[in-house]
Structure prediction request, 1064 residues.
Amino acid sequence: MNVHGFLLLGILFSSFVTGLVIFFLKEENHRLRTWLNLLGAGVKLILVAALLWGIHQGQTYSIALEFLPGIPFTLGADANSVLFVTLSSVLWFCTTLYAVGYLEDSPHRSRFFGFFSLCVTATTGIALSANLVTFLTFYELLTVTTYPLIVHRGTTEALRGGKIYLTYTLVGGAILLLAVAWLHSLAGPVVFKERGVIQTLLASHRGELQVIFLLFMLGLGVKAAIVPLHGWLPKAMVAPAPVSALLHAVAVVKAGAFGIVRIVYDVYGVETAATLGVLPPLALAAGVTIVHGSVRALFQDELKKRLAYSTVSQVSYIVLGAAILGPVATIGGLVHLVHQGIMKITLFFCAGNYAETLGTHRVSEMNGVGRRMPLTTAAFTVAALGMIGVPPLAGYISKWYLKKGAITAGDEWVAVVLAVSSLLNAAYFLPILYRAWLLSPKAWPHEHDFGRWETHWMLLTAPLVTAALVIWAGVFAESPFSPLAWVKLIATREYGP
Amino acid sequence: MLTVLLLAVRPWRDAVIRATPLAALPALVLALAGPTGARLSLPWAVQHAVLELDLVGRVFLAFTSVLYLTSGWYARGYLVKDTNPLRFRLFFLLAMTGNFGLILAGDIPTFYTAFALMGLASAGLVFHRGDAEATRAGRIYLALAMVGEVLILSGFVFLTVAGGTTQIAELHRGVFSLPALLLLLAGFGIKAGALSLHFWLPLAHPAAPVPASAVLSGAMIKAGLLGWIRFLPLGEATMPVCGFTLISAGLGAAFLGTFVGVAQKNPKAVLAYSSISQMGIIMTGLGIGALRPEEWLEIQAAVLIYATHHALAKGSLFLGIGPAHAAHTRWQRLVVGVGLLLPALALAGAPFTSGALAKTALKANIAFLPAGWATVLGILLPLAAAGTMLKMARYLWLTWPRPGHATESSARGLWLPWLGLVVAMLAGVWLLPGALEVLPKKLSPQRLWDALWPLLVGGALAALAAWLRRWFSGELTRWLPAGDLGVLFEKLVTRVALRPPVRPAPDHGNGHDAASPAESLRWSARLAAVGGRLARIENTLRAWPVAGAALLLLIGVILWLLAVSRH
Prediction:
């Protein structure tokens, strides 16, 4: 254990301690809670920046604690985990700001922010886990800490959504546990390593490895919302807007996708997985999910539901990238991990703004919102166009690399799936933009007046910042300071020089 | 220098509303005076963006900037009574930025970015008027534009993978990618109004405000042409299938445009069909190029001349509609008459006009074809010219300023830009590099007759039609509505959608094309039924018995796999 190891613990505890302290704060202690939240998020941001710099310089970070005999509890940071931890800490900061504005004057705020911080701790833990057992621990922790956030409102609908969420994720977790235990019995403690760790077992345990892979995908596929395991996600959008935003962009769904990436690249190794022949079925499942999610999104009138089905579809881009052999597709999939996050969080922030300011929850009520809330709608437009894949925004970069990777690998059908998906994305996003900008407004269901700005300034800042990130990630994709540049670094490490 | 150019056209200038039309000026200056081969590289932005000015780009930039300049100027007068002029200007400037950007683009991502920007912004122009017709046209336009963009992006990716680079100048065109070829042919075909992909044009052009129609028909439609010139391996490889497709689709479009176009009652729809015909003729030229790569440079020159000529003449005809509706005095009617007649005759290819030059240039290339095709084209192209004359007669009949027919009280601010464009049309083509070399050395009666007879045939047909009108007063547009195939398709879709009795569902607000509100409702009800079926499937999957059975099945499969793998 060294200074470097403490950095990892610091990242983890910056949100954990915040969460614990907030539980014991009085409800009316508004100012202190806000400062604590922002302090925790800020400290984490600084620590992550230090980590980012260190990894870029080629340093290694790890810390191990023996918590069961023979099964060390290990934290570590490689390029892959830094990608995820950076995404989550940046978006956590934005979401905290947003949530403070969103939940002003609503009950049970201490409970909310406490679990909120714990949820982020679990996400960070998933990113920084260096072996399978640690990963599993944080993964289950995430399941549990998210539940109070989903049912936060306490309505019948919220409780029902929460129950469905728990049923799905607990069953998924059980299957994942089975897979981890089985692999453990074959290979001993599995430490994540670039290019995989199970090559030696390939000859002797081929069939078992295939079954374990299937179990992994089933277990992780629940959170990653792969069809037909996605049923909980549209129900879970009863949660308050900041929770949905974080759920869809970083925490739960992304944890599943990140887990799949980990298993494919750092446990099996993508080349080994290809020899096992387990990638084509995964690619097929991802393709089906992409199209199915988009088609379902087309028929949702409720804005958040439409966005939820859009998530189902978009997260599978990441899985698709992982399931196609070749560095270009890897880049496309991993970069979408970040790009989907910043685009979807913007969309959910904006949806929350519409609901809070105007009381509009449905697409059919959105006529003319562009005139009433131009800045929010501008952010929404940027993110929606990015989702469609309009250049030069973030989503276009992902699609370009995914398509290129698929064609390079000879999987032309994937290019067709992506093209169809782009058209469907356009079909469910463009009518919203048309309504928002070109139709004239009617009366709003519940309008609030926030004075000088079109809505509360905290609610406005968050989507504007993330929308700016969407533009930056697309326009300056080829600069050294972009998600794409980092992902290219990962791809070189995964495939070797 | 190029950066300055881009900054100048960026929309944040539009606070200075008076300066809007001037935003196109730097591009014109660049086209006329800029050094060929000027290059600006932005390695960090948009995947190594490169802007470049080459010969083809210079010609395109010249006529495009003239069109935007005059249309933007014209828009100032045209939008006096508009409720939302700022929105129009914003979309106009964005479309312009995209159009200039794609002409100057030196690499695939920049080209595609600019192309997408132009497509989305121009949809805003079509939607602008906001009534039912504009909404329908806008939806169809947007849907087709998105399909086109997806096809093009896929084509580009194939091209990049095959060529190993994104720089247009370095694309190894010898590396042949059939999927890329087909995708780009179809994708750009939508923008260029190629046969069977053309039906958005006669819907979108009448729906858009006049200055927008002028740039849509004159400049943006040419973006499809530019895409073909830049990305098809023209001049590199012989592509018989591609060539014959282009020639036959082009000829088909030329005649279909005439056939449906003369039946239209809206002068802008007539002009839209005329654009389809004219683009068809240009496609024929490209087709010859695909068959004879070694002659490509000459063919390209002819295509450029034709494109310039058509852009300027068509722009003049569109912009002329405004003054024609406001011609009160005799003197004004005279100016309008001459100003409309000149571009109309030019388009039909009357002797001594830009059209004659363009047609001569194109005809010179027919000789490169195998004998059979050359004969066929030699007969069909003059017939197409006769068709153009017929359409122009129809257009003039519809717009001709008659005493007492003026509907607008005044057309202040429309006259000058329109006349400016007419002058540009008269002068422009002759300034193109190599234009004068195309001309025959001596004017012979034979050549004059060659150019004249299609006009006379067309004129005679038009006269005959006018005479027949006394006895036949049926509504032709009922049988041949604007948007021919599109309307058929629309009806077909609605018919299919209507077949089973479905319960009425609330309008889900999805952007699907529909002819009328009632049909739109049924259409979405049908779609909602599909959605409902998917939802039911999902619910079934979620039910406990199904989930339990699936789990049991899963365990069974695992056990079986285990048993198998132990051996």
The CA atoms of residues 117 and 532 of chain B lie 35 Å apart. The first helix of chain B runs from residue 2 to 9. The beta strands of chain B are 39-42, 49-52. Chain B is about 70% helix and 0% strand.
